[in-house]
Design brief:
- It is a single chain.
- By secondary structure, the chain is an alpha/beta fold.
- It folds into 2 domains: about 30-125 and about 250-320, D-Maltodextrin-Binding Protein, domain 2; about 125-225, Periplasmic binding protein-like II (D-Maltodextrin-Binding Protein, domain 2, 3-Layer(aba) Sandwich).
- The chain has 13 helices and 10 strands.
- β1 (about 35), α3 and β2 (about 65-70) form a beta-alpha-beta unit.
Amino acid sequence: MATGMTRRRALALLGSLVPSAVLAQASYPEKPVRLVVALAAGGPADTAARAFAPFLAQILGQNVLIENRPGASALVGTESVTRATPDGYTLLFGSSSTFAVNPAVMTKLRFDTQKDLKLIRLVAQTPHVLTVRSAIPANSLDALVKLAKEKPGKMFYASSGAGGAIHLASELFKRETGTSINHIPFRGGGPAVLAVMSGDADIFINDASTTLPNIRAGSLRALAMLSPKRSELLPELPTSAELGYPGIVSSSWTGLAAPANTPDPVVKRLAEATDKVFASEAYRAVVKKGGFELFGFNDEQTAAFIKTEVATWAAVAKSANIRID
């Protein structure tokens, strides 16, 4: 090839030798990428997406445009991606609800997240923290469990909605501790936390990243971090495992996915770009400031994590008889 030949002429020559689809994959991306967030703006998934997108854009050399498409517990946005052209220009920034919780509780899904989406990378997570209203006479997890057992059916926990990740996490707590606690669902985490602080509910399990201000203000009392290891958000707070309940582990997490038939070279390009984002010290600082943690999983670890999450929430949904038609 002549030294002065332009990139366009080179591609034209190459185009006479290989199919155009292969060329498109080799030059991906040639236009902005749309990143669909299937939840409302301002929530943990949206916050994580807005931290991630500019760094991905820098690596790809194209704009990454966030599109919030909330509705029906993340089904609207998720389904739009499963039906999108599988060319790498429409991606999903999904959550634990998308990949594990909704399949566990919804009986009439019009798509299969395992078959209709290709998970590229797990991105970030924020552990759940177990809190109680300040007036509850329990300063430890054991004290709370004892109190709940002394008052079966007389205590209440709040959630951000029936059938959601927080609902199932709370039912996991009940199952593992053998307690009987009533559920009060609210339309979102904001109303739920207000209900606990006002005394309308007693217990609230929620994302540590969004609950931290209430804990620091003293309006909620944190009893345990529901994660395998202590969180930098509240390093002094023991984990549920440390307190004798290793089965109580839950978090809100996010992952980058593409339509199932997206070509492997495009998926590989996105995976490599995402790994470069994770390696960025600037991105790590943004993630930490937002109250999130990076996964850093390889493909095998990712597969094992997803398998565990799907199995865990399916079992909880079955034992608690949680079904949404």
